[in-house]
Structure prediction request, 187 residues.
Amino acid sequence: MGTVPVDDGRHLVLIGMMGVGKSSVGRRLALRLGRQFLDTDKMVEEEAGCTVADIFAGEGEAAFRTLEAAAVRKALDSQPYAVIAFGGGAVLDPITRGLARQLALVVWLQAPARELARRVSASMRRSGGAARPLLAPGRSTEQVLDEIARAREDAYKSAAHVLVDTAGRSPGQAATAVLVATGWPVQ
Ligand code: S3P
Prediction:
């Protein structure tokens, strides 16, 4: 990982845990870079005609991961170069990690589990309680997110070119931090 110029004919991919702000930061980055914004969760939902939560509930996580891997390939194959938010678990697939590193500048957004839990709870309230399939009812959201983040740390690290800490930052401030970390002139 290090500082890399972003304007080098590659997609800009955001990875990291659920709740870290990949979609809200990604939308702002796309606006500031004049690029389209793609979100692999939304692509899966459009393809399947139902929500991510419905797929987990009806067909299971493995079926979701297959659809997610296909959405990742489609996003990375698309033109013009975009800002792409991956679902939080997309980089568990080693082929996805390899493709993303090869075809994109990959930015790992990070925040402590306590902040992730706050943001996930706020977004669930905003969306009227939309299900987060990996959160176990009756268990502390912060604890579950902390466990998942630890289990995925190596996958995120090996996929990422650049790490950006979003703790205490608004989506706009986090977008600026991404532009600074990638060497893109901040607008
Ligand atoms: C998941 C994260 C979610 C979604 C699915 C699984 C994960 O996306 O893909 O619920 O495994 O971390 P976000 O990271 O956009 O919330």
Remarks:
- The helical segments are 22-33, 40-48, 52-59, 61-77, 94-103, 113-126, 141-159, 171-182.
- Residues 11-179 form a domain with the Rossmann fold fold (CATH 3.40.50.300).
- The radius of gyration is 16 Å.
